[in-house]
Design brief:
Layout lengths: L2 H11 L4 E5 L3 E2 L39 H4 L2 H9 L2 E4 L6 E6 L2 H10 L4 E4 L4 E6 L5 E5 L2 E4 L5 E2 L13 H7 L29 H17 L4 H16 L7 H13 L4 H15 L2
Antiparallel strand pairs: 1-2, 1-3, 3-9, 4-6, 4-8, 5-6, 7-8
Helix pairs in contact: 6-7, 6-8, 7-9
Length: 279
């Protein structure tokens, strides 16, 4: 049994969902069953649906506390090639404040309550008790890793985890960053119909957008697939006339980002939905 597997099993026994990291300290790629994201477990999937793969797929979603899975034949090669162990903080009810440089550490020491601290290559991980959505770059040199994210296991650290403070939660309470690649302006028709909207009332469109927002917000699992499905439903009904505007798209992206999706994931899912519909 490799040292990394022993570490993962010890973490699993403590309730930390764990997974192996390959060279470059990144998760293993999809298995052959999920090649090209055919299972629909990633945001740029072609066929939405739950992933039934037993292998080490889909980054944080592969993390597990089940020793039978960690030691299963499907994971043997991954552990043989692993260079590090990661865990899913949110799955363990934790939040990791990833402080990437000295300035970020100085800010944390002056602003936040002390908690379990683990040294990293360039900075520190401050680990709090309590889960929240993960957000990158909440301030210079600071990332939040909790739900739908993974963090490297770098040892037990010093101190004990204290309750997640409101000051950390507040870092994520802001308008989601607009996507870097703005979707095609939809104030003009995507194609056909001469710009004539067949919907007799704006209430129909408003209801469709609201239902899509509610569908995304209510999702408790398969977030990527849910976002893609909501985008697909909106575009299939409203994508070929002139009624969709950038304001509507921003509302959908905002709902998705509130569930932990990044701006890039939102843009990829939107573009994939358009491609599927031939828009």
């Amino acid at each position: 049994m490799s040292e990394h597997l022993r570490t993962a099993l010890a973490l699993a026994a403590r309730g930390f969902p764990s997974l192996p990291l390959r060279a470059g300290k990144v998760p293993f790629g999809n298995c052959p069953t999920c090649a090209g994201n055919a299972c629909g477990g990633r945001p740029n999937m072609k066929t939405p649906g739950p992933c039934q793969c037993p292998g080490v797929c889909h980054a944080w979603a592969a993390a597990t506390t089940d020793p039978a899975v960690l030691t299963s034949p499907a994971w043997t090669d991954a552990w043989r090639r692993a260079v590090a162990v990661a865990y899913h903080p949110g799955g363990a009810g934790l939040t990791v404040l990833d402080l990437d440089d000295a300035d970020a550490i100085t800010w944390a020491r002056a602003t936040l309550p002390a908690t379990l601290t683990v040294s990293t290559t360039r900075g520190e991980h401050w680990i709090y008790q309590g889960a929240m959505r993960s957000v990158n770059a909440v301030r210079p040199g600071v990332d939040i890793k909790s739900l739908m994210a993974y963090a490297r296991w770098l040892g037990p650290g010093t101190g004990v985890p204290t309750d997640l403070p409101d000051a950390v939660r507040a870092l994520a309470v802001k308008d989601p960053t607009p996507p870097r690649r703005t979707p095609q302006s939809l104030t003009a028709p995507l194609r056909g119909n001469g710009g004539e909207c067949p919907h007799r009332t704006p209430v129909f469109l408003e209801r469709g957008i609201a239902m899509a927002e509610q569908r995304i917000t209510a999702a408790r699992s398969a977030i990527h697939a849910t976002v893609y499905g909501a985008f697909l439903a909106v575009l299939s009904t409203h994508g070929r006339c002139g009624c969709l505007t950038d304001t509507h798209v921003h509302r959908l992206f905002t709902a998705a980002q509130a569930k932990g999706e990044t701006a890039r994931h939102c843009t990829d899912a939107w573009n994939n939905a358009r491609t599927t519909l031939g828009l």
